[in-house]
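User: Here's a structure from my thesis project, written as structure tokens. My advisor, Dr. K., wants to see whether a designed sequence matches the one we expressed. Can you design one independently, without my sequence as a hint?
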């Protein structure tokens, strides 16, 4: 409803339908066959749906999609489908919450371990036992795991497993 009022355009095609229509394009179809982890973002601009197809590699390296398909919002016809060479106006870049959450967890663990190394090399008034550092580290790991699960409500514990596999690939 907001889209119709803002652009004064009568829409016959829903955003989800536009994504499905774009899958019929040969370029997109071939891309989807070769990239099982791909996903689409969609935006309406001047009566045209911009369906951008991304894979994780492209998203992490560049800020433009692998494939861009333009679909008429009234008729549902594919106007154009191509591989962009630069960022296109109107294309929505997906927000990478997983990357942000991962970086926060890595920084927290790094700071804790760095503080342990610094503390162990200098003498302070109060001595902590190694057991206290271990308990503190386990608490930080538990809180980090809880943070990752909360930041990824769709995946829940599944994202935590992906994170551990990504962080420690030599154990899997």
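Assistant: Designed independently from the structure alone:
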């Amino acid at each position: 409803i907001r889209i119709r009022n803002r652009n004064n355009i009568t829409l016959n095609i829903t955003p989800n339908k536009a994504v499905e229509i774009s899958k019929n394009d040969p370029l997109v179809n071939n891309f989807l066959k070769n990239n099982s982890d791909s996903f689409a973002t969609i935006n309406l601009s001047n009566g045209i749906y911009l369906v951008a197809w991304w894979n994780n590699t492209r998203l992490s390296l560049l800020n433009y999609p692998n494939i861009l398909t333009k679909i008429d919002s009234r008729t549902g016809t594919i106007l154009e489908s191509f591989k962009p060479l630069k960022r296109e106006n109107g294309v929505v870049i997906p927000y990478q919450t997983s990357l942000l959450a991962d970086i926060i967890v890595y920084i927290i663990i790094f700071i804790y371990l760095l503080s342990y190394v610094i503390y162990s090399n200098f003498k302070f008034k109060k001595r902590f036992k190694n057991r206290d550092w271990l308990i503190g580290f386990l608490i930080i790991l538990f809180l980090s795991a809880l943070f990752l699960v909360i930041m990824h409500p769709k995946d829940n514990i599944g994202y935590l497993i992906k994170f551990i596999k990504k962080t420690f690939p030599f154990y899997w």
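When you compare it with your expressed construct, this may help: Residues 1-8 have pLDDT under 50 and may be disordered.
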